[in-house]
Amino acid sequence: MSSLEISSSCFNRETKLPLSPPLVEDSAFEPSRKDIDEVEEKSKDVINFTAEKLSVDEVSQLVISPLCGAVSLFVGTTRNNFEGKKVISLEYEAYLPMAKNEVKKICSDIRQKWPVKHVAVFHRLGLVPVSEASIIIAVSSAHRAASLEAVSYAIDTLKAKVPIWKKEIYEESSSWKGNKECFWAPTQ
Known about the structure:
The chain has about 190 residues and is an alpha+beta fold. It has a domain at about 45-175: Alpha-Beta Complex (Aldehyde Oxidoreductase, domain 3). About 25% of the residues lie in helices and about 30% in strands. The strands form two sheets. Strands 3, 4, 6, 8 and 9 form a five-stranded antiparallel β-sheet that branches. Helix 3 (about 95-115) runs antiparallel to helix 4. Keywords: Cytoplasm, Molybdenum cofactor biosynthesis, Transferase. Its EC number is 2.8.1.12. Pathway: Cofactor biosynthesis; molybdopterin biosynthesis. Belongs to the MoaE family. MOCS2B subfamily. Heterotetramer; composed of 2 small (MOCS2A) and 2 large (MOCS2B) subunits.
């Protein structure tokens, strides 16, 4: 049979859907403990603050694992408006030693609260044009609930605790913005 021919025996003629493959009893292949151990991998936290453009694909690839059925992402981008003003770009600054330390604490907290495999937190510094990513958070876990909850916790906690400052640059002016979630922000 050539590679272009399809055997009709593997299709149900009424629905044209593939049937389940036959079950084979007493299969000769059973994974050994060695095979299972080779799949084990060490959990990792990847934290990066950079002036370079962020790539959703690159960050998500860092957390993919054969042990996980879920990868959840949060991507924060620069929008083109704020309170009726046209935003040209955002500019971010951070106190890096403290920012990195706080993000490490967030990763540790996530691991205590949810059964996750890998965590990646990338934050852009400097100018971020409209529609580009300012932050990407990626978390992998065996099941979706853990990674979804962990990503939500990560962005909320990052905005509240990590010393990152944002300047909105408008057509005619600019303004430094504090995160309303931030514990050191003045109450109004």
